[in-house]
Each structure stands twice: as structure tokens, then as C-alpha cells.
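Hey team,

Filing this mostly as a record. A colleague (T.K.) asked me to run one chain through the structure pipeline before their review meeting, and I want the input and output archived in the tracker in case anyone asks later how it was produced. No errors, nothing strange. Just documentation.

Input sequence:
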Amino acid sequence: MSVEERVREIVGRVLNLAPATIRLEANLKDDLGATSLDRYAVLMDVEEAFALDLSDVPEEVLETRIQSVGDIVTFLEERKA
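Output structure:
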């Protein structure tokens, strides 16, 4: 499963949406209706699924950099590099 597929699966599970309907450009808040708690749950699940520790990333950075589903994918790919 690709990074993109896994992220869509996580977002879909947290927001109760079909992963196939989630576009990369979809804004978590504006397009998918995610609350701040939902965004936190997505990031926690991403952290677990990809065996990451995001505690070293300031919350302000996560808040500004991760607005869309595609932002999560890009962030993960950068962390893996």
C-alpha cells in the first residue's frame, strides 16, 4: 500500500468517509469537515501507522503545514527522506 493510500485510509477512518472519495487537494477542515480534534486524531494515527515520532515538530508547524490530505503525504515523504 502506498503512502497516499494509507493516508486516505486513515483520514477516511477518522472522518467516517470512503477513502476512494478523498482527494489529495481536499482541505481537512474546509472540504472534509475535520475539527481540530479530528486533525489531531489523524496525526496520531499517521504517527502510529508510519512509526514516527512527531513530538519534535512544533505544533505551529503542523498547524500551518498540514492543511490538506496532500500536505500529509508530502510531509511524510519529506520525513522519510
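Quick notes for T.K.: The chain has one domain: 3-80. The CA atoms of residues 64 and 71 lie 10 Å apart.
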